[in-house]
Amino acid sequence: MNLIKIFLTSIGSLMAMFVFTKLIGNKQMSQLNMFDYINGITIGSIAAEMATNIDSDFIYPLLAMSVYAVAIWLISFISQKNLKLRRFFEGRSLMLMGNGKLYRENFKTAKLDLNEFLTQCRISGYFSLSEINEAFIEPNGQISFNPKSAERPIKPSDMEISPPEEKAEYTIINDGYVMEENLKYCGKDLNWLHSELNRLGIGSVKDIFFASCGSDNRLTAYKKVSDKPENDMFQ
Q1: Quick check: 115 and 138 in contact, CB under 8 A?
Q2: Closest CA to 24 of 40, 44, 42
Q3: Is the dihedral of CA 172, 22, 45, 36 positive or negative?
Q4: What is the pLDDT of residues 132-177, one digit of tens each?
Q5: C-alpha distances out from residue 57 to 5, 6, 17, 18, Å
Q6: How far is C-alpha 54 from the chain's CA centre?
Q7: How many C-beta atoms surround the C-beta of residue 9 within 10 A?
Q8: In whole angstroms, what is the distance from residue 159 CA to residue 157 CA?
Q9: Are the CB atoms for 93 and 136 separated by under 8 Å?
Q10: pTM over cut 0.90
Q11: Mind listing the pLDDT tens digit for each residue in 86-130?
Q12: Distance of alpha carbon 103 from alpha carbon 79, whole angstroms
């Protein structure tokens, strides 16, 4: 009987989590601020407790999850309408570096160690602070950099070049399966697909692990292979 209850409450908690996620809204982990992160953990913990605690009533943890979800939704709604409240609940960007200075007090406010900052600089490709014009820590904890003009990547506009616009590639074949909706959306059909496969010397769709169609209207395909490289090329 207990196993059946755990099974049913687990299904119920999954359904509740799905509904609350739709209510709160989807965010990538890198986009979560501290408040969202803590509330997400709390709701997940309550859902796990609801699924495994056979002695408690189902309604109490469900009510607690509902309160958290509604509170998060209300705060998100209010924050969209009021800039001051948005800054209060979500935080604001802090300048860590600018005008040739490192702002120590902002480092303290952000609870950021200088060594952590230097690590993020290197991860972002800046091995010298002299390459950076400005650095900010965003409300989600990510550090964004504005490089000096001489250090930023060159753009076509810098060379007075106007390259043709490139569109995102459509996935046409995924692990041997043809994505027919994507094929139609990019203005192609099965005849075009088979023609492209013949051009590439590939006999069957089942032989393809991944294939896509880009702005050049040509198929790029990667065949299924049994190779399994195990050597570490960096060490």
Answers
A1: no
A2: 40
A3: positive
A4: 999 998 877 889 999 988 777 777 777 778 777 667 788 999 989 9
A5: 11, 12, 17, 20
A6: 36
A7: 21
A8: 5
A9: yes
A10: no
A11: 666 666 788 999 888 899 888 988 888 888 899 999 999 898 888
A12: 28
CB contact set of 156 (below 8 Å; sequence gap of 6+): 162, 163
Residue type present at position 17: M
Q: Are 62 and 53 in contact (CB under 8 A)?
A: no
Tokens, residue 225: 């292979």
DSSP structure string for the chain: -HHHHHHHHHHHHHHHHHHHHHHH----GGG--HHHHHHHHHHHHHHHHHHH-SSS-THHHHHHHHHHHHHHHHHHHHHHH-HHHHHHHH---EEEEETTEE-HHHHHHTT--HHHHHHHHHHTT-SSGGGEEEEEE-TTS-EEEEE-TTTSPP-GGGGT--PPP-PPPEEEEETTEE-HHHHHHTT--HHHHHHHHHHHT---GGGEEEEEE-TT--EEEEE-------S-TT-
